[in-house]
Amino acid sequence: MSMILTRLHDDIGTIIMDNPERRNALSSKMVDEMLHALEVLEKGKARVIVIRAHAGAKVWSAGHDVNELPIAGRDPLAYSDPLVTVLRSIQASPLPVIAMIEGGVWGGACDLALSCDILIGSPTASITMTPAKIGVPYNASGILHFMGIMGVNIAKEMFFSAQSLTAERAEKLGILNHVVPADDMEKFTYELAGNIAKNSPLSIKVIKEQIRLLANAHPLSPHTFERVQGLRRLVYDSNDYAEGINAFLGKRPAVFQGE
Ligand code: LCV
User: Which of 64, 107, 236, 244 is an active site residue?
Assistant: First the structure.
């Protein structure tokens, strides 16, 4: 059964996450289908892509499939992780990608939404960063991504508290480009997409790539890189990491010991 539906209408491609039973958790199967949909739309006539959940979704996406997080001792968000792969594909896509968000966005799905170029939310949209709730160290590219978009203080608050950011606050912070009543969101999103589709695709592609390269221009010394990797290993080698995952799977609150 497909977890991703793909549409193309008037040069606008739509990728619909359609696995409500699992709250659109980004399993490797769903990510593979999303990567395929991106490739088909990029090779076809699409000039803009909209990524959304099924209409009326209470959860846009519940983030990384926790069942697929590796056991303690292995990097939970390695370069080759399916979720990390699809984030890079969206960021590197030559097409502008719009996230149309209804409902909750959790964990790695926040990075998926923020990897899109424009974010449009309904008033029910919320953003919750969950690594500290599960005992995950997150990863350098993701943390840098959040710092760049929302600033250090807000990124710290989101990562440390794992509290939800409302659509209203996310718009005030510039994380959401627009908050639009749910009934108007589809019309608003596709009108914006249509306006973008009329502009020069080459100019847009080159401007998007320039912004990505300039935003990512953070020289890291080998020492800094190794220190970051060592810090992350401290976490994913820890008992807390195993406890976080087991608590989620066991549907009980995690009890972290800080080791
Ligand atoms: C697997 C799931 C998931 C799920 N994985 O419905 O960013 S990091 O570092 O943390 C990164 C590692 C990451 O992204 O980790 C995942 C972070 N995501 C979360 O912590 C959100 C976990 N999900 C929830 O809190 C709830 O499911 C929400 C609030 C999203 C929806 O709650 P609701 O009551 O509507 P259920 O919890 O009953 O979920 C329905 C089914 O989907 C599964 C969940 O286990 C349940 O399966 P069963 O029916 O078999 O019990 N599910 C939900 N999220 N991320 N499976």
Answer: 64
Q: Is 5 exposed, middle or buried (0-12, 13-18, 19+ CB in 10 A)?
A: middle
Tell me the whole-structure pTM to 2 decimals. 0.94
The owner of tokens 């390695």 is 78
Model confidence pLDDT, tens digit, residues 46-81: 999 999 999 889 999 999 999 999 988 889 899 999
Q: What is the whole-number distance in angstroms between the Cα of residue 25 and the centre of ligand 1?
A: 7
Catalytic residue among 108, 135, 142, 244: 108
Rounded Cα–Cα distance for residues 151 and 163 (Å): 17
Q: Rounded to an integer, what distance in angstroms lies between the CA atom of residue 123 and that of residue 79?
A: 33
Domains of the chain by residue range: 4-183
Burial 103-123 (b: 16+ CB within 10 A, else e): bbbbbbbbbbbbbbbbbbbbe
Q: Report the chain's mean pLDDT, rounded to a whole number.
A: 95
Q: 4-183 belongs to which CATH class?
A: alpha beta
pLDDT digits (tens, 9 = 90+) for 169-217: 999 999 999 999 999 999 999 999 999 999 999 999 999 999 999 988 8
